[in-house]
Specification:
The structure is a single chain. This protein has one domain (3-45). Helix content is 85%, strand content 0%. The chain has two helices and no strands. The longest helix has 22 residues, at 3-24. It starts with a helix and ends with a helix.
């Protein structure tokens, strides 16, 4: 992954989170956190 692609992905993610915060009100950071927690629990099962 080049630096340009990484910067573009970070910018898109930041724009999505800002859009959610100011306009959509979907609670994306909380949703992402919950999904990440479930994923960690799934991975710990296979350990």
């Amino acid at each position: 992954m080049t630096n340009q692609i990484a910067i573009a992905l970070v910018a898109l993610l930041a724009a999505l989170l800002l859009l959610d915060h100011f306009w959509l009100h979907l609670g994306l950071p909380l949703l992402i956190g919950k999904q990440f927690d479930r994923f960690i629990e799934y991975l710990s099962f296979w350990r």
